[in-house]
């Protein structure tokens, strides 16, 4: 069951796991709930699960490949096998230079989030780029900071910055129906390299159970003003899938509103 989850390019359904492992479907559901309760796996939405740590998932096969010898090298461990890399865990993300583009803030407004990143992590090397329409960028001059560059950009056109570490959008995707959202995500992620991540800062509604009134009000605002919508976890997963992206993690940073950071990357680079 763990091998099936680890081999998948994204979350796997209980039905698919039961079929591949030839385990009774009801038993599969019960086992998945048990594993999830110990945080060995994560349920990303109803009946869909994924591994939490590819290193742990790779451990049995890794130990077998080493004839069950005790691991002795930090450069040759289950972590490297699980993440398909030769890097040392603490070196990932530490090879940036002053010329690296660290953070691209798309639809940034006046860059409030980017300025917070710069303030919170002043030691980080690399550039931050804010992108928005011309009239917004024209107002940026008085707020400009060292290490932060402003660009005019329309996210319905190809993304000009290639190979940045993080591409960030806050409260952008919920303004658009799925076909437009897919176009935006494909324009941005077409420039990714192996180290790039998509960070979507938006509301994630629960698939079931009660939804706070202010979250449903936000959904009605989207429907009324833009013919758009807030999305459930299942709907976000479907949007990422249709855009060729793999979900890495959802970080809920405001549980009462559902505001979350959705971390994803292209399947071909995952």
From TrEMBL:
GO terms for molecular function: O-methyltransferase activity. Keywords: Methyltransferase, S-adenosyl-L-methionine, Transferase. The keyword tRNA-binding does not apply. Signal peptide: none annotated. Residues 102-245 form the O-methyltransferase C-terminal domain. SUPFAM superfamilies: S-adenosyl-L-methionine-dependent methyltransferases (SSF53335). One of its GO terms (biological process) is methylation. It holds the Pfam family Methyltransf_2. This is S-adenosyl-L-methionine-dependent methyltransferase. It comes from Corynespora cassiicola Philippines.
